[in-house]
Amino acid sequence: MNLPSYFKPEIKGFLKTLIKEQPTPFLVLDLSVIEKHYLELKQGFPTADIFYAVKANPADEIIDSLTQLGASFDLASVNELNKVIKYNVETSRLAFGNTIKKRADIQYFYDQGVRLFVTDSEADLLNIAQYAPNSKVYFRLSIDGAETADWPLSKKFGCDAQSVIELAIKAQELGLTPYGISFHVGSQQRNIGSWDNALQETKAIFDKLANQHQIFLKMLNLGGGLPAQYVQKTAEFTIYSEQINAALALFKDYVLEQIILEPGRSLVGNAGILVSEIVLISERPHSGNKRWLYTDVGVFNGLIETLGESIEYPILCEKTGHSDPVVLAGPTCDSMDIMYQNKKYDLPLSLEIGDHLYWLSTGAYTTSYSSIEFNGFSPLKYYTLD
Ligand SMILES: Cc1ncc(COP(=O)(O)O)c(C=O)c1O
After folding, report:
1. pLDDT below 70 — which residues of the chain?
2. Does the C-beta of 225 come closer than 6 Å to ligand 1?
3. 265 lines ligand 1 (CB under 6 A)
4. How far apart are CA 152 and CA 142, in angstroms?
5. Could you give the count of Cα atoms lying within 13 Å of 33 in the half-sphere of its Cβ?
6. Which of 39, 172, 234, 259 has the fewest CB atoms found within 10 Å of its own CB?
7. Ligand 1 pocket, residue 264 CB under 6 Å
8. What is the per-residue pLDDT across 171-222, written as a single tens digit (0 to 9) for each?
């Protein structure tokens, strides 16, 4: 079995030992891969602050390692904040990046020293003004481009350009600092032009606020969206960074205090290998001619991003020989628990019950999405290789 060469050579031995000693399924995270991606991001975007989107994988070991590397953190909840402040991260490196927040949670973030908040609605802005007075606020702009992202994020967040302008004016009236604009082009975004479009829209808002309202925004938040390596190939990271940096030239007449990136998937995705065991193999002539492989990992204990067959994880196994198409399904009594039925996955005919499948690029959005007890199955465990 050939693992990608970006893993530490020790990973094979580590996997072997774990398979001997621990029940599957489990996720193995090679922390050196995360470090490599962090340094690559810093090199590709030298002037940007990297705010890791903790939701992608809140493992303590990842937070610890990124803290030491100098990362900042994009936080969605009080629990994420509590995880990060354990590592004594300066509060200037933290942002409450969820547009949907309870008043008590705004207050809690404020009490802990956080002064950077996102918003996309007047109701939320009023709460921030009341519970986090004098803080900096940035406005989440809703943008198009969802169709070229494998996991779109456009349905629930963001507001249009006119609303951003109204919110910025209101923020100033409320004693807050209208600081900048954020957008998210959609997770696993394959069209790099999405950032160009979003930045053009953002620039028009910067111009209007400066020229018509004397409000000078100072921050750009380019969100997440950079890819991990799944079955469907994307452009190299350097192509992304070059093209996005070129688009940033639009802002050459502005004095930007801060450019923020909020990577989740691209930082931690490739670092993960999820090991599962084949529980059952069956022929189901009434459901097409494919073999059905049921594994002990499924949609509800780690692979939720296979819903709609959206994210296509590369799968390896130790058997070789002739392969033919399979349906891959999880262990629960829920018929949504099918990972791939229409997408083409071919696996060796020699596979047997008890063999292992290795799901690559599973470092992001697996453990954090895993249910705690659905059908009695345990949440997905993980082990780290330093
Ligand atoms: C506000 C915010 N920032 C960043 C991210 C991370 O995005 P990605 O995993 O595509 O890098 C997300 C993902 O949901 C998000 O909601």
Report:
1. none
2. yes
3. yes
4. 12
5. 29
6. 39
7. yes
8. 999 999 999 999 999 999 999 999 999 999 999 999 999 999 999 999 999 9
Which tokens go with 276? 């599962």
Sheet strands (E) in 31-148: 48-53, 72-75, 94-96, 116-119, 136-140
**Which domains can be identified in the chain, with CATH numbers?**
58-263 (3.20.20.10), 269-385 (2.40.37.10)
Q: How far is the CA of 265 from the centre of ligand 1 (A)?
A: 8
- What type of residue is 375? N
Q: For residue 228, which of 78, 53, 357 has the smallest C-alpha distance?
A: 53
Q: Which residue has the tokens 């799944």?
A: 230
Structure-token pair, residue 145: 């481009």
Closest to 158 measured CA to CA, from 179, 189, 190, 186: 186
Q: In 10 A of CB 43, how many CB atoms?
A: 11
Look-up of token digits 């249009």: 160
